[in-house]
Amino acid sequence: MATWSNFNLQNGASPLMEQIIFFHDHTLIILIMITILVSYLMINLLFNKYINRPLLEGQMIELIWTILPAITLIFIALPSLRLLYLLDELNNPLITLKSIGHQWYWSYEYSDFHNIEFDSYMIPSNELNSNNFRLLDVDNRIILPMNNQIRIMITATDVIHSWTIPSLGVKVDANPGRLNQTNFFINRPGIYYGQCSEICGANHSFMPIVIESISIKNFINWINNYS
């Protein structure tokens, strides 16, 4: 989860989030190089006294400053397209989770198992324990196994919500009357926090999402005990 004075992205807990971080760093390096080059040229122009009165055109320099930005954009576009296709790829999911957005809480259904569905509300400040996070913890967490492909199907019953877990690289809109899907792969155990990131009304800030990632053995025990 995000912490104080953390200016970087959160540590990736899934391969897709790691790829997003790599792409962010790659693009940032290109932007820094462009900024340094343009700053150097502008400072040079301000502080030199060179003049060229008969200069009317320069086809070679115009060719260069047209082709170089195009090549730079290709270096950004190709990794971006690769990442977009990776985010849409769905590889034989082990579990399908259905998430339904309401004003202002989430409902979850484990479609592969009978009778496993529950609502997830934020824990009020006056009911928090010492190990809970204010505005982030919920009464019913999503329990998922690590090292397995998970498919999540997302919709809403009233207004547009957005199911977002930054450390997993997941952000999907929940639209009424429409079913969106995405997938993720959690590569280590832990607790991952998210929130609705689409302004959905007065209590938009108070419908957090919490995923608890556990081993497949513990997940099977949880399923058996829940049923």
UniProtKB/TrEMBL annotation:
SUPFAM superfamilies: Cupredoxins, Cytochrome c oxidase subunit II-like, transmembrane region
Coarse class of the protein's main subcellular location: mitochondrion
Cellular location(s): Mitochondrion inner membrane
PROSITE patterns in the cross-refs: COX2, COX2_CUA, COX2_TM
Gene Ontology molecular function: copper ion binding; cytochrome-c oxidase activity; oxidoreductase activity
Gene Ontology terms: cellular component: mitochondrial inner membrane
The entry's keywords: Copper, Electron transport, Magnesium, Membrane, Metal-binding, Mitochondrion, Mitochondrion inner membrane, Respiratory chain, Translocase, Transmembrane, Transmembrane helix, Transport
Domain Cytochrome oxidase subunit II transmembrane region profile per the UniProt entry, residue ranges: 1-91
Highest taxon in the source lineage: Eukaryota
Membrane topology: Multi-pass membrane protein
Cofactors named for this entry: Cu cation
Cofactor binding remark: Binds a copper A center.
Domain spans labelled Cytochrome oxidase subunit II copper A binding: 92-225
Transmembrane portions of the chain: 20-43, 63-87
UniProt similarity note: Belongs to the cytochrome c oxidase subunit 2 family.
Xref: PANTHER family: CYTOCHROME C OXIDASE SUBUNIT 2, CYTOCHROME C OXIDASE, SUBUNIT II
Quaternary structure annotation from Swiss-Prot or TrEMBL: Component of the cytochrome c oxidase (complex IV, CIV), a multisubunit enzyme composed of a catalytic core of 3 subunits and several supernumerary subunits. The complex exists as a monomer or a dimer and forms supercomplexes (SCs) in the inner mitochondrial membrane with ubiquinol-cytochrome c oxidoreductase (cytochrome b-c1 complex, complex III, CIII).
Function: Component of the cytochrome c oxidase, the last enzyme in the mitochondrial electron transport chain which drives oxidative phosphorylation. The respiratory chain contains 3 multisubunit complexes succinate dehydrogenase (complex II, CII), ubiquinol-cytochrome c oxidoreductase (cytochrome b-c1 complex, complex III, CIII) and cytochrome c oxidase (complex IV, CIV), that cooperate to transfer electrons derived from NADH and succinate to molecular oxygen, creating an electrochemical gradient over the inner membrane that drives transmembrane transport and the ATP synthase.
Name of this chain's protein: Cytochrome c oxidase subunit 2
Species annotation: Biston panterinaria (Chinese pistacia looper)
Gene name as annotated: COII
